[in-house]
Amino acid sequence: MFITSLLSGAIQCGTSVLYGIYGETVTERVGVINLGTEGCMVVGALAAYVCTYHTKSPLLGILMAAIGGGVLALLHAILVIGRKANQLATGLTIMFLGLGLTSFLGQQYVSVSIDGLSMIPIPVLSGIPVIGTALFNQDILVYVSYILCPLLCYLLFKTRLGLLLRATGEDEEVVFAYGANPKLLRYIGVVLGGMISAIGGAQLAIAYTHTWIENMTNGRGIIAVALVVLAGYHPKKAMIGAYIFGGAQALQLLLQAQGVHISTFILQMFPYLFTICALFFASRKKVQAMPAELKKIIESSANS
Amino acid sequence: MKKKIWKKLMSVVLCGAMVFSMAGCGNTGGTNSSSEADSSAKTSSEKTDSKKTTVGFIFVGAKDDYGYNQAAYNASVAVEKHFGDQIQVLRQENVPETEEASRALEQMIQKGATVLFPTSYGHLEPAMDVAKKYPDVTFFHQGGLKTMDNLGTYFGTIWQSFYLCGIAAGANTKSNKLGFVASFPIPQVLANINAFELGAKSVNPDATTSVIFTGSWSDPALQTSSANTLIDKGIDVIAQHQDSTKTIVELCEQKGVYCVGDHADASELAPNTWLTGAVWHWDDLFIDMVQTAIDGKFDGSKYDGKYRGGLKEGVVDIAPFGKSVSEDTQKKIEEEKDKMINDDYNPFSDEIKDQKGNIVCKKGQTLTIDEIESMDYLVDGVIGSTK
Amino acid sequence: MKDKTESIKQALLTVLALAVMVVIFGVFLMTQGVNPIQIYGDMIVSTLGNSYGIGQVVVKSSPFIMVAVATAISAKAGLVNVGGEGQLAIGALLATFVAVFVAKSMPGPVGILLMLVAGALGGAVWSGLAGLMKVKAGMNETLTTVIMNYIAYDIVSFFVYGILKDPESFSWPMSPEIADKLRLPEIYVGVSIGIFGAVAVAIVTWLVLKKSACGFRLRVIGGNAEAAKHAGFSVAKIQMAAMLISGAISGIAGMVEIAGVEGRLRTTTGVNYGYYGFLAAWMAWNNPLAAIITSVVIGFLCVAGNVLEQSSGLPSSGTKILMALVLLGILWKGKGRKKCS
User: Fold this and answer.
1) Stretch B137-142: mean pLDDT, rounded?
2) Is A93 on the interface with B (CB under 8 A)?
3) Same domain, residue pair B232 and B92
4) Are residues B121 and B225 in the same domain?
5) Residue B25, in any domain of the structure
6) Which A residues, 129 through 188, put their C-beta within 8 Å of a C-beta on chain C?
7) Which residue in chain C has the smallest CA separation from B215?
8) Do A62 and A49 touch, CB atoms closer than 8 A?
9) pLDDT above 90: residue B108
10) Any CB–CB contact under 8 A between A85 and chain B?
11) Rounded distance, CA B212 to CA B226, Å?
12) Which residues 239-258 of A are in CB contact (within 8 Å) with B?
């Protein structure tokens, strides 16, 4: 029972962050860092909520979320790729813009209710003892997040586009040699990343909580950007990062409900402490290094 | 070269237009926007009229959080409506409980404000600094326990409502396990949790209340996770002290556990599982306070000190009962409410023990307002940690 | 000569981009039924039109400047230190500890000095932890500093709800007010000497980075750590030192916030200042002098935002949108003619 609760809590707390990690991984693979992931997520949350409210279709909501997040990421891309603006500063500004715009536009939607996505148990699989209900009695966007992992791996590592995208992040010269345009590829990577992150916001709004309120992502996008490092810039390990974070969150809530005599503030540190521990162990093994172009960006802006 | 600059400029414009169109689209898409807020936006942008009294409100959170801040915000709208052209209203939301609050108040005074409402507990000290500097400005602080010549405090004894909600919860639970999703272990919140547990215990001695502190006033995802955690533990009534209460109320309806609301009536969101909830009625109080200030009668009025309104004064109340609350329970609650209104009954009386067994209220004793509003413990029967 | 016309053109372009953003926001205000000219006028008059307003802009900018300089120092060593937020918080926490428990009975200047040391120490410990994790365990500092911001917030809460709780504030989560003699002296309406400290730190940092051998070494490492290692630099030592100094400066910003502005510690003290400072630093391409300007711009927007909200009746998100637009306008300039070497 405890384990089921914990597992299911880990997935529920971790899924939105997971999308953020997926999105930011794609972005950073093309050599761009987008601290505005938080902004993309919150835009995704509002877009999905508003669209679901008006059209009664959560599917359209998800689509809207992706478009909204993509547009915000495009703005980031225009500034940092087109104008060579500082990536970290632009990202933070994009985050403020996303938070500001959504809380302004979302005011009227705080009080409305929607029919969002609900839990759909997968037959047979959800019957597995202990892990069945935790893993396979979730909403569609959770299942999509499972599938997205191999999908992104395939895209990045098995297709020509993926090869070019990764090459853009590692060495522009190679991309030129292939006769492709690294600028365009960067745009693709950043926008795609924003779209994926935004679905994480949508998951929060229309699947998990069925609520819109300003600033509802509450730092999950920032955490996601940090966890990309833990995931070694690889979608394969994104789940580990997301579920360690989510699992620690679920654990501290469970312990609170048990009435353990530990300060709530110490308990609330759990997700962060666990993440640092996880990074410690991950760093002992050889980690996937930061994409070279990304490294260059950070180093060059440090040295101007 | 020139061409290039134009090209750049064009792209600036395009980019800005993109952002702007996002704003525009969303705005037209909105339904039933509060027209009061819109009209207030217009009136307050007019130049300060010397004959008008300017009244300023600052809120710690968002005005549309569906909770504490919205309750106060709505009252500020009621004040504006009531006095019409007589007053000008200034508002600022999301004012943190730091020197930022002094700044906001000071800036309002520079815009001509003579009556100010810092509406969050933590705005007290910053407000006192400003009040010292401007002895002619009247301050009404929400929830404070310190006062000055030109600064009075007011609050509602919302724990009375939570006590009544506790009765409904205690009567309805089958597992005898109640849950409470709270924000931070501050005195106002602890008092509500304690009152809730005392209410539940008054009709069901076995009832316990498990508390989860989310560390946030409104994080819907954490609220959902917390409520799910409680439900997994076999808890069948969930109360809350959060802004934006909708998330948990809807979740309870979906999961089939009873829910108790906070700040506002949300019964229509959970037709089957709604019990009742604590609600604020600030409007009349706010209007009366502003009137007192306009008339120059603040000194010596009941607001010149620590004013507390409760069920009796109509400042707090409980929301309508849901269909799951039996006739008997409803009668019992009405009786208790009557006792509080007519006999000044206070549930924080007679022997009360805290979690560790210490006696926090002796037999025959009744806790004072100061004692209730500075609670730092949870009573026996509550499962959770205060620190 | 050519260089000059180029830079004028760049400056003009920035002004134009800013103007466009201001106009866009003005149109937005008009759609909300608010007269933009009047609001803009109000915002400028209330911030720059009187001594109180100017003072508040200065007060608000000081911590941003310090965190920005701190961020710049670590950036020069090739480190992305997002932890100004947490370092400031721990600095403020330690400074408050000293003020409440140690310096109460000391003469003012000694107490203040002790608070300063405590603040610097607090910040340095917090950044030093991240530094250690970086140089000893190879743990990415961007991740650790971000995560440690959250931990710092919880630690501050733990103490403010615990042993630092003011016994005279009715169990409310805030520290006792620090003694008047421990407050930094005021030099202007509401402005403490903290601003001098902030500006001095920025100038000294700029000089050291630009002119000294130490600054040179830092830049070599920041530019390419691998190459620096081959050239015989002790990368780990220098990065660690950069982190420690950076954290100490952020910690002092926290101390100034307590001794110069707030007078007591709350869980909300200095929240988001770290991120604004970080933004200011990277907007200025980690040039400490330019960071003063970007910090003041952000400080100005914060203070003017209050007036925007009060005068227009718009929600607080209006301020955020305006701030983002203005900053985007500035960022628009991009890297300009400064090509990376």
Assistant:
1) 96
2) no
3) no
4) no
5) no
6) none
7) C154
8) no
9) yes
10) no
11) 7
12) 249-250, 253-254, 256-258
Residue B137 lies in domain? 50-156+282-309
Residues 6 or more apart from B134 whose CB is under 8 A from it? Answer: B109, B150
Domain range holding C181? 61-312
Q: How far apart are CA A157 and CA A172, in angstroms?
A: 17
Q: Are B350 and B363 in contact (CB under 8 A)?
A: yes
The answer to whether residue C321 neighbours chain B at the CB level (below 8 Å) is yes
Give the model's pLDDT for residue B101: 95
Identity of the residue in C161, C283, C325 whose CB atom sits nearest the CB atom of A86: C283
Chain C residues with CB under 8 Å of B375 CB are 171
Instruction: Write out chain A residues lying below 8 Å of B215, CB-based.
Output: 264-265, 268
Q: What is the pLDDT of residue B366?
A: 93
pLDDT tens per residue across span C12-42? 888 898 899 999 999 999 998 899 999 999 9
- Ramachandran quadrant class, B367 (left: phi over 0; alpha: psi -120 to 50; beta: rest): beta
Rounded to whole angstroms, the Cα distance separating B96 from B74 reads 20
Distance from CA of B133 to the nearest CA of A (A): 34
Answer whether residue C15 is part of any domain: no
pLDDT above 60 for B9: no
| ipTM exceeding the 0.90 mark | yes
Of B148, B160, B108, whose CA–CA distance to B124 is shortest? B148
Pairing of strands B138-142, B274-280: unpaired
The answer to whether C41 contacts chain A (CB < 8 Å) is: no
Q: By three-state DSSP, how is residue A143 classified?
A: helix
pLDDT of residue B241: 93
CATH code, domain with C69: 1.10.3470
Instruction: Quick: pLDDT tens for A264-286.
Output: 999 999 999 999 999 888 887 65
pLDDT of residue A89 exceeding 50, the answer is: yes
- What pLDDT score was predicted for residue B45? 40
Residues of chain C with pLDDT under 50: 337-341
pTM confidence score: 0.91
Residue in chain B lying closest to C170 (CA): B374
pLDDT band at B2 (very low <50, low <70, confident <90, very high): very low
The yes-or-no verdict on residue B158 having pLDDT over 90 is yes
Residue type, B40: S
pLDDT in tens, B350-369: 899 999 999 999 998 999 99
> Given its phi and psi angles, is residue C206 left (phi above 0), alpha (psi -120 to 50 degrees) or beta?
alpha
CATH number at residue B230: 3.40.50.2300
Q: Based on the fold, state whether residues B272 and B166 are members of the same structural domain.
A: yes
Is residue B42 a part of any domain in this protein? no
**What does DSSP say about strands B138-142 and B316-318: parallel, antiparallel, or unpaired?**
unpaired
Q: Domain A11-302: give its CATH architecture.
A: Orthogonal Bundle (1.10)
- Residue pair B97/B120 in contact (Cβ under 8 Å)? The answer is yes
Residues B245, B358 within the same domain: yes
For residue A285, the model assigns a pLDDT of 66
CA dist B241 and A97 (Å) reads 30
Q: Two tokens at A201?
A: 């916001």
CA of A243: how far to CAs of A60, A93, A145, A250, C185, in Å?
Answer: 27, 28, 12, 10, 50
